[in-house]
Amino acid sequence: xxxxGWTVKYSKFLVTFSEVKVLDGTSAVAAxxxxxxxxxxxxxxxxxxxxxxxxxxxxxxxxxIGPVADALLLPGxxxxxxxxxxxxxxxxxxxxxxxxxxxxxxxxxxxxxxxxLVDCEGELNGKTELGTVVTSGGTDxxxxxxxxxxxxxxxLQDPAAKTRFQHLADADIGANGAAGDGxxxxxxxxxxxxxxxxxxxxxxxxxxxxxxxxLGAFVAFLSRTVGHFRGEGECHVQIQK
Length: 241
Ligand SMILES: [Ca+2]
Prior knowledge:
By secondary structure, the chain is mainly beta. It has one domain. The protein has helices spanning 79-88, 166-169, 186-190, 215-222; strands at 7-24, 27-31, 36-39, 57-65, 72-73, 92-100, 103-111, 115-124, 127-130, 132-134, 144-146, 183-184, 227-229, 234-239. The strands form 2 sheets. Strands 1, 2, 3, 4, 5, 6, 7, 8, 9, 10, 12 and 14 form a 12-stranded mixed sheet that branches. Strand 8 (115-124) and strand 9 (127-130) form a beta hairpin. The longest helix is centred in the middle third of the chain and has 10 residues, at 79-88. The radius of gyration is 19 Å and the shape is globular. The structure holds calcium ion (CA).
């Protein structure tokens, strides 16, 4: 449950891994042969790729979430869903409902953001390690983790950001102040200026992202922060588009 009492349930959570690379210095020694689309509503860890035969040593890991024209679709991703993503140029597409106290709102939001996640580091055998360490005859299973709750953070950079939904629910309004239709569109989000959101709904700090002025851009910016490494591990985020 979120800080403001809402709960969210996803029916689709489609993510395009447009690149996954294992690097020796700056040169890739292994890479995904083809982009992969994953539906995170499908339970369990999904196998993306294995890169056998790497020599022992430390390697960097980076990946990207960006729109692609062709991809391998993992179980739970319909060809029709991917066609929709391709037509709209989306790298991410989330569909779901949010509820609180008998009120339910639905949403279907697509993002054309192209984000590279580099210099990934995370916990391995109790230590924070950069990338991956290949031992002689050993295997390292690297988890690229997607944090689905980040879309609902109330701050772009504060590590103490909370998940909330009221500000998004309130974006659903009808013409001339009439009640909304229960569907929160990205156009409705874009119509809400951050400066107009009352403080009791959250802080909505933007850090250095000075171009982010409305809720549509705010949520799109948060879409760049869903990619993590080995659970809670972090990568540096590079905005490609
Ligand atoms: Ca609406």
